[in-house]
Design goal:
Radius of gyration: 22 Å
Number of domains: 3
Structural class: mainly beta
Largest sheet: 5 strands, antiparallel
Number of helices: 4
Strand content: 25-35%
Distance between the termini: 46 Å
Order of helices and strands: EEEEEEEEEEHEEEEEEHEEHEEHE
Length: 232
Amino acid sequence: MFVFQMWGRHQVLPQRLEDVCEVGHALDLTQSASHLNWKGGWTRENDWNCKICGRYHKSGDLWYRCDRCIFQFDVNCGTKMLQKNVIHHPSDKHPLICISKQLLAKCDACGKEHKGNFYHCYICLWSKMIHSDCAFLPQKLQIQHTTNDVFSHIHPLNLAYSFPVEDQISKNLPRCRVCRYGFSYRTNLWMYKCEKCRYYTHLDCATSRNEPFMSILKSPGRPNYLPNMYKH
């Protein structure tokens, strides 16, 4: 562990962060070194930038770095990562960063407009914007009660991050079991499904807060079972 002073407080940082870069390499906390610039001389000032926040640093500053994929970030972003401002989400091969300023924007996971904190990928050119409510949805849902013979299924529903047109065609263009509308115009939106029974729902339909029918079965960092999470 390394003790680093920031904003008048001491932050304890680990010497190594595991599974941070896109290919799963570990990043070690080291002191950045000078390197040759394009003129053949040694660059010592403003010679590297954090790949998360973009801030430039002088050589000698501390960084977390993977030399194999040339990925590095400063200790400030390392601290934020430890504070869950950076998450590793199955929907993206890169880490997702929480935008510090609250926004009113359309969520690319559910397709709805939200106000609050959004996560995005700092590497992808056309990065999706994922609202925090969707970013932390459980990977599995159990539809618990029957409501008008619609909200009932014996198997847990798995979270999926797209529904390509070719898959829809191969499954005879299924409709959402909740709202009865199709998925053809929402191919890149997330959804819940049971492939065994070909039971599919839109994300916003499956997580509707107007129906007390859901229970969380599996969600990182949360209890295995929370009965009737959404209530009137």
